């Protein structure tokens, strides 16, 4: 009986410690550096706004994204390195409630914020070009 309990305990320990990448959708089309080219929302920007100071660099191998922008303005998120999940075409940034659908077509990445239905005018779409 002790052997059965021991074997069962080892089995449970091994299965509990497995890497849970089943919830992560690998998508090589995201990998690499992207430069912001346009933001579409119910918000205003100066005519001479330079979106190109904002970049994303998706590192698929460790499920992280490096966000860079100028020190005074950020559009997508505050600069830094963040873990993210990609589950069936929905990207979620670590430690935030922000979720985005994405589409990659002809070296253009389109991220669309999944808005809160009870909040008016929070729709926003970001377009990036591959660098």
Outline the fold blueprint.
Layout: H1 2-16, E1 32-41, E2 55-59, E3 64-68, E4 80-87, E5 90-93, E6 99-105, E7 108-113, E8 124-130
Antiparallel strand pairs: 1-2, 1-8, 2-3, 3-4, 4-5, 5-6, 6-7, 7-8
How many beta-strand runs?
8
Tell me, rounded to a whole number, the average pLDDT.
80
Main sheet makeup: 8 strands, antiparallel, barrel
Task: Give the number of helices.
Answer: 1
- End-to-end Cα distance: 62 Å
What is Rg?
Answer: 20 Å
The global form is globular
Kindly estimate the percentage of residues that lie in beta strands according to DSSP: 35-45%
Name the helicity range: 10-25%
Class by helix and strand content? mainly beta
Main sheet: which strands, in order across? 1-2-3-4-5-6-7-8
Low-confidence stretches: 4-10, 14-21
How would you describe this protein?
With 131 residues, this protein is mainly beta. 11% of the residues lie in helices and 40% in strands. It contains one helix and eight strands. It has one helix at 2-16; strands at 32-41, 55-59, 64-68, 80-87, 90-93, 99-105, 108-113, 124-130. Mean pLDDT is 80; it is low at 4-10 and 14-21.
């Amino acid at each position: 009986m002790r052997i059965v309990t021991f074997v069962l305990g080892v089995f449970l320990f091994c299965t509990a410690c497995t890497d849970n990448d089943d919830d992560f959708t690998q998508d090589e089309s995201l990998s690499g550096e992207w430069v912001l080219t346009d933001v579409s929302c119910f918000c205003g920007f100066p005519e001479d706004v330079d979106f190109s100071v904002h970049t994303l660099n998706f590192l698929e191998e460790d499920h992280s994204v490096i966000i860079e922008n100028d020190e005074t303005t950020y559009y997508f998120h505050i600069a830094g390195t963040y873990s993210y999940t990609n589950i069936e075409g929905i990207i979620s940034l670590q430690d935030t409630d922000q979720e985005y659908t994405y589409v990659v077509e002809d070296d253009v990445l389109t991220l669309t914020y999944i808005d809160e239905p009870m909040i008016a005018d929070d729709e926003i779409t970001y377009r990036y070009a591959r660098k």
